[in-house]
Amino acid sequence: MDDFTEIESLRQELTQAGYEYYVLDKPTMSDYDYDHKLRRLEELEAAHPEAITSDSPTQRIGGQALESFSQVIHRAPLESLQDLFDFQELEAFDQRVKGVVPEAEYVVEPKVDGLSVALEYENGLFIRGATRGDGQVGEDVTENLRTVRSIPLKIPDAPPRLIVRGEVYMPKKVFHALNEERERRGEALFANPRNAAAGSLRQLDPKIAAARKLDIAVFNIQWVESVSFSTHLETLDYLQDKGFKVIPHYSCSQVSQVTQRISEIGENREEFPFDIDGAVVKVNNLSQRAALGSTAKFPRWAAAYKYPPEVKPAQVVDIVVQVGRTGVLTPKAVLTPVRLAGTTVTNATLHNQDFISEKDIRIGDTVLVRKAGEIIPEVLSVVAEKRPEGAEPYFLPKSCPVCGAPVERDADGAHIRCTGAECPAQLLRNLAHFASRDAMDIEGLGIAVVENLVGAKLVKTPGDLYFLKEEDVAQLERMGKRSAQKLLSALEKSKGQDLSRLIYAFGIRQVGQKAGKILAARFKTLEALQNATLEELTSIDDIGEITAQSILDWMSSPQSQHLIERLKEAGVNMTAEEQGSDQRFSGMTFVLTGTLEKFTRDEASKMIEDRGGKSAGSVSKKTTYVVAGEAAGSKLRKAQELGITVLTEEAFLELMR
Hints:
This protein has 24 helices and 22 strands.
């Protein structure tokens, strides 16, 4: 078999396997075989780039990052729907429809709470995908939609042109896993799957969208050439036959059946892989839809029934405080069991002290509870007349309930945090941050290995990493002797990292990579930084009073001092690299934009910083140069507007010489 025949064979195999896995949910190929075949296809396409096609499974991993999204004018408007809030309004909708088409029948579908998109195909190939926008004009998110595995990149026996509409969503299980990962990294959590899906689909870097594992439910044909249909159900069957993942749907001949289906969907909402915010009712017959027409805002042949949020009373049995991986103290109300949106609720988040004080929530109170966005239980209010005698106002503790370290309130928010550098509740996050690429850059120490080390009780602080024994690490799950040797070698290598990386690795609040470099350059040794005063710190450019106080508080903590001593004992470097003699960019600020061919942005940034300059992420009047690569966008335009000197990659290299 020659390479080109093998390429075509692998594409067909992988496309079918992807359809079975992502659309039918009935995989026939193991993950191992799929990954092995995909790697082989990537190797063959790399050897024969002329053979790469837009519908190849390799094109789903995400291409180059974009500067911005372009606009798309929809060939057929993506209309919104009239909302119905009770069954009386549903009956009125039915009467309006039957007044024009007495024999109308309906299709009922769950209303996915996601982001509406249009997918456009020409001669069977997926050529463009756009967000709904205002219904008339959306944003071109084609590259991100290519990463949604349930969207076919090529459809069989296709019409010349086809535009379908669907709802992109983040599956519930993916949402919860993503938030757990973001919590480990100390990043802000997504409020609900819809926000997560919208944020993922609008990422300028398609690789981020690919990692978010989005899905889609297709529910309408917007435009089609050379094919005709008489009913909506026929269009759904057609789309399913072409390989699309179609929305669940139910046929109803009478409005009483519509009511029943809406109730069943609401009662069983937990069984759907996606969040729903209602049910959609549509006239099935397409010619009847044409007779009904549309208003200026909505089609007259469809409506969205919105489920009222259930609100029920429950008693606050206790208030417990959890310490998250970022050190935030989160109070939680322990409730008497109450059934909401299909599940039994026994607790609800109380967010922070401000929330508790504002609503005056006390242990023993009866409160009204609902599920926010049908996901997170929340307390709406206190039923004051049912408050038991002697109930006292509640306040969060002044020390961490896990490690006993003092807590402090964020200067710029409502969160209260544990200040302990070795707090067990923050251990996973602290270790992952300490080992990350921009900190101590310990190769092989990802979150899975960190969890293994913590689970085996081999590590209790970042300092313990440097005292690991090969035989202990080798016994961990998915490790072995060779992996253990590699990890210990990477740990040994990290001991020589510059002081700036160590300062950043500590995870001191307000101290990022840039501040770590500034502090290392100013104080030269960690001991000098430990002895720094508030006045010395605030006299440094870019170090404000809040950051300075965070540094002083962290350095004075007994847990921090223990960690530093442990690192000293291990032989970790605590001095700054000598500044190079080449400081030609001192006082200059560079902004990099577009795709650079000869080096990555990180490499270019290091070249600038090694020569005394700064690398910034946005263009301002203080910018000295903008280095523009291929496909430079908004940053280049802003530089031109401000009259800032723009350098090509070659001109930038000339400055280096």
